[in-house]
Design a protein that fits this description.
Number of helices: 9
Order of helices and strands: HHEEEHEHEEEEEHEHEHEEHH
Largest sheet: 6 strands, mixed
CATH topology of the largest domain: D-Maltodextrin-Binding Protein, domain 2
Distance between the termini: 72 Å
């Protein structure tokens, strides 16, 4: 008799515990829901009707100010096009090579069109879209420095390289010319100014920018070697798969429609000869 009573009591307790567990689980799902209920950044942008975009001026023709003080350039047109298609207002925030990633991770900006190379190291901190431009680092030297053809030729204390911190160009110089003198500046125009004033012997930047400047200026010589194949991507915070998918669709659409090629010719004055793959 006692054994039957004990079994009934035990069964009742187990059923009660199971019911409580189910109710607790349901409450958790209907409450904050953890990661499953988190709102994707795309939804937040659409809800507030505004997108904050980090850009990296001055760097003609990628991103710079016109005579009226307006931001213009290849990156600016891409950001404005995205805002137009989303139907949201664009607010530009200036970033640089040092703080453009932290601007994303801290939430200071929603995303960046900041001439940033998507690579494995940076992908530990933020996510990237598929590339909307592909370029490579090239060297520019002052006129008359004919003995310098490669970065290794600069590996001597008698040579000074003007470089921007936190860039692929900096990584290249530190690796292959560690004995040269490095003069850190804040932007590509400052690199060019250092060459022009004789304060630097060489600079490193995207080949698109080096070739563009060499075609206009008489103080810079663009060297032929291209050191990297760099995918220039949109950067955004991790944990936003819907935004990432939308950005990939957006970039793919701009490439297949021919808009990207038109924009490149508009700003660089030449046909785009690189290869950009699409996902959609």
């Amino acid at each position: 008799m006692r054994r039957k009573v004990f079994k009934k009591l035990l069964f009742t307790v187990l059923v009660f515990a199971l019911v409580i567990a189910c109710l607790t689980g349901c409450d958790a799902k209907e409450g904050d829901g953890g990661a499953a209920a988190s709102v994707d950044l795309l939804d937040k942008i659409l809800e507030k009707g505004k997108m904050t975009v980090g850009v990296n001026p001055p760097g003609e023709p990628i991103c710079f100010y016109d005579d009226a003080g307006n931001l213009i350039g290849y990156d600016i047109d891409w950001a404005n096009k995205l805002g137009e298609i989303l139907g949201v207002e664009i607010e530009f925030v200036e970033v640089n090579g040092d703080n453009r990633i932290s601007a994303v991770t801290s939430g200071r900006v929603d995303l960046i069109f900041a001439n940033i190379t998507g690579n494995l190291e940076r992908a530990k901190s933020i996510d990237f879209s598929i590339p909307y431009l592909r370029t490579g680092i090239k060297m520019g030297t002052r006129v008359g420095l004919d003995e310098i053809e490669t970065v290794e030729d600069l590996n001597d204390p008698k040579y000074t390289v003007a470089i921007v911190s936190g860039t692929t160009g900096e990584d290249l110089v530190l690796k292959y010319a560690p004995n040269c003198k490095i003069s850190y500046v804040t932007s590509y125009p400052d690199q060019c100014l250092a060459l022009q004033e004789g304060k630097a012997d060489a600079i490193f930047e995207d080949g698109t920018s080096i070739d563009f400047t060499a075609g206009k200026a008489d103080y810079l010589v663009a060297k032929e070697k291209v050191y990297t194949s760099d995918p220039i991507c949109v950067g955004y915070a991790k944990g936003n798969p819907e935004l990432g998918r939308y950005l990939d669709m957006f970039v793919s659409s701009m490439i297949t429609s021919g808009w990207q090629a038109e924009e490149y010719f508009k700003w660089f004055g030449s046909e785009y000869t690189g290869t950009l793959n699409t996902l959609w």
